[in-house]
Design a protein that fits this description.
Radius of gyration: 16 Å
Helix content: 25-40%
Number of strands: 8
Number of domains: 2
Strand order of the largest sheet: 6-7-5-8
Order of helices and strands: HEHEHEEHEEEEH
Length: 138
Amino acid sequence: MGALSWSEKSITMALAIALKAKYVLLDGPLKGLDPSRRVKMLKAVAGETESTVVLVTHETRVLRILGEWTVYLLFEGRAYGPIEASKLSSAGVVRGRDAKALITVESGQGVFSIVPSGGKSVTELLSLDKVYEILAEV
């Protein structure tokens, strides 16, 4: 959906939901949207109850709006999860393994854990790509 305008994205999403599609895949629906339209799109998606919606994004700030959604994280081709969006939105990222981790990820750059409290806030990262910057810190 990245190449579509706001109107085209909205119409496409509305059609999929109105037609009661069993599955709706939204790959990068927030890309290129201004903050106001991003929130409108997320609220519409978050309110959907009849379809299974797969939302693909790197943006971590969306977690606050998605509340009880089940989230899977993809790093270097491997899926980690499930974890509830509300838990992930209040979690932090630390280097290495942590016994209290909600998720521990092993990447080519190193190991990091997503913990219930402490570390760098997941939502403050703005993008999951920023995890690699945490791993690079000395």
